[in-house]
Amino acid sequence: MAKQEKKTQVENKPKGNVTYPLGKINFILMAICLLLIIIGFWLMTGSANVGDTFNKDLFESSRVTVGPIIAFLGFVLMAFAIIYRKKDKNPSDQDNE
After folding, report:
1. How far apart are CA 73 and CA 81, in angstroms?
2. pLDDT by residue (tens digit) across 33-71?
């Protein structure tokens, strides 16, 4: 009886073309967004205050505004890269559905 159950599970596998939820363009866009996030965090890095000396580089515009904006854009565009779906070239296929 166990052999029959295994056999029916094998028969239920889909045949033909398998479509994946994310395509090649999605992965390319996600890689670009990841690069933007890394660049944004890299711009925010730098040395800290040491002892009694004040480090003026702590409040540079690249650390305070540019880096966070680039990282935020990377995160927002990452959501777009995941959701993005390539349009079909054949509109006649949609009419038949």
Report:
1. 12
2. 999 999 999 999 987 777 788 878 788 888 889 999 999
Measure the CA angle with vertex 82, ends 76 and 83; round to 5°. 90
Structural domain boundaries of the chain? 19-86
Is residue 36 within 8 A of residue 74, CB to CB? The reply is yes
Euclidean distance between CA atoms 40 and 70, whole angstroms: 5
> Which range among 1-10, 76-85, 88-97 shows the weakest confidence by mean pLDDT?
1-10
At 49, list the tokens.
Answer: 């205050």
pTM: 0.68
- The conformation of residue 88, written as its DSSP 8-state character, comes to P
